[in-house]
Amino acid sequence: MGKKQKIFRPKARIPKGLRDIPAAAVRAEAAMLARIREVYEAYGFEPLETSAFEYADALGKFLPDADRPNEGVFSLQDDDEQWLSLRYDLTAPLARYVAEHYDGLPKPFRRYQTGPVWRNEKPGPGRFRQFTQFDADTVGAPTVAADAELCMMAADCLEALGIPRGSYVMRVNNRKVLDGVFENAGITGEGAEFEARHLTVMRAIDKLDRLGPEGVRLLLGKGRKDESGDFTEGAHLSDEQIDRIMAFTGAGGDDRAAVCARMGELVGDSARGLEGVAEMRLIDELLSAGGYGADRVAFDPSVVRGLGYYTGPVFEAELTFEAETEDGRMRFGSVGGGGRYDDLVERFKGVKVPATGFSIGVSRLYAALEALGKLETETVLPPVIVLTMDNDRLADYQRMVMELRAAGIRAEMYLGGSGMRAQVKYADKRGAPCVVIEGEDERAAGEVTIKDLILGAQKAEEITDNTEWRESAHAQISVPRAGLVGAVKDVLARHTAAR
To answer: Which cell locations does it reside in (predicted)?
Structure first.
């Protein structure tokens, strides 16, 4: 007799860096997204959905962790041997969409979109490989008035979600100003090698909040080894160049006009830098005209954003409050960001198409609202369960379910193969407010039995002996079959009022 072949059984586990989201969190997140959508719609933005996959060459190479496999994206080849990649953000697909439909779109084109994105990055606490973003972009607007508007809208979104003024700030900088500082510090050049070094510097500055000044100094210099022992190559700047950049990142303040003046000093005679300073002054003027003071929108030269496609103003939405978590007190920091990317559509069209956008990190914002107790938790009663006491009467039970649903009541017919005790246990696990029972005795009497599971659980806690149990009503009533809907409504009304 041959040896019995071992059956392979895959291990039930979620891939590293991904997560499952249960029903309550799904509902709360949907309510949060609905509130953001209301603000975006109020500003005149329209919804758009783009594909999860894009051709890899359409996405470009703008990722924050370009040293990861596949250039930081998840990719595969299709039947035509063309490389497809899961989108790493919602902006690159938007650029492709605008280029593809350019002639038929109104310009400026204003759209919002929410959906998952994927990054092949090293996962960590609160850092997932799949996460949701909620973007709003204006394509075809050359003036920084569009950037100022996004900063105002982002501030309005945070307040609409219940985050009080003083617990957040929109932080704004300008890549042109940063380029001017680079030029003034002698960080200039051309070609792929210089572009890579330039991007390394920006990504180092972008980690200032997480690594602190000393960590950034290491990344601007020879490099830095993290706690796991992984080494990140630095930009190899001189000490003088590092000092100039660090001085620039610390030039922020509560007075936007004063920050602009300091920026002007740090860019020196750089024409590009001075152009960026002029844009910042115009943004300040527009924000002030709209009533957005520095307590809501501040200028901060340490904001650079890690992606390489930004060309002008960049901004981040930062939460400034601390919250108690399982690991102690923490500050949530950035929950969204964006900026101007005037060159992204040009990759497809060959002509410059100015654009700017803002993206909310949904998961991080959700965690912050949860810590603040600001999540809108929708109260949804679980479904009423119609027990299936007789398999020859499934059509009768189906009719009961349909009557309940027609009356606006969540209801389901038990579809398992177990007996009554297990069916009631199933209803308990679902949190069902009640079950509907029609066995032989009920059918002969023209009745149905409604068992109130919530009241039954309460009574069980109150009863102390068997005599009292036998004399109690057990939270169970019988009603004429025609009175099914009314009786169930009475049960639901009782528990809805209690909530």
So the answer is: Cytoplasm
- Is there a contact between 59 and 125 (Cβ–Cβ < 8 Å)? no
- CA proximity to 344, closest of 108, 56, 63, 62: 62
Q: Where are the beta strands (DSSP E) in 300-354?
A: 313-325, 328-340
Query: Per-residue DSSP letters for 422-447?
Result: HHHHHHHHHT-SEEEE--HHHHHHTE
* pLDDT over 90 at 253, yes or no: no
May I ask the CATH class of domain 23-187+245-372? Answer: alpha beta
Sorting pLDDT into bands at 50, 70 and 90, what band is 62?
A: low
Mean pLDDT of 199-203: 82
Annotated binding-site ranges for L-histidine: 89-91, 119, 133, 137, 305, 309-310
Give the other-Cβ count within 10 Å of 286's Cβ: 19
Residue type, 33: L
296 or 240, greater pLDDT:
296
Say which CATH architecture domain 384-498 belongs to: 3-Layer(aba) Sandwich (3.40)
Residue written as tokens 């949904």? 362
Is the predicted pLDDT of residue 267 greater than 50, yes or no? yes
Give residue 460's pLDDT: 60
Q: CA nearest 393: which of 425, 438, 442?
A: 438
Distance of CA 72 to the CA centre of its chain: 19
DSSP 127: B
Task: State if pTM tops 0.70.
Answer: yes
28 token code pair? 């709360």
Mean pLDDT of the chain: 88
Domain range summary for the chain, segments of one domain joined by +? 23-187+245-372, 384-498
The Cα 259–Cα 252 span in angstroms is 6
Taking residue 22's Cβ as centre, other Cβ atoms within 10 Å add up to: 7
Of 138, 92, 144, the residue nearest 111 (C-alpha): 138
Q: 86 has which bridge partners?
A: 53
193-223 burial, b for 16+ CB within 10 Å, e for fewer?
eeeeebbbbbbbbbbbeebeeebbbbbbbee
Cβ atoms of 152 and 40 closer than 8 Å: no
Closest C-alpha among 180, 260, 247 to residue 220: 247
DSSP tally for the chain: helices H, then strands E: 18, 18
- Summarize the annotated binding site as residue ranges: 89-91, 119, 133, 137, 305, 309-310
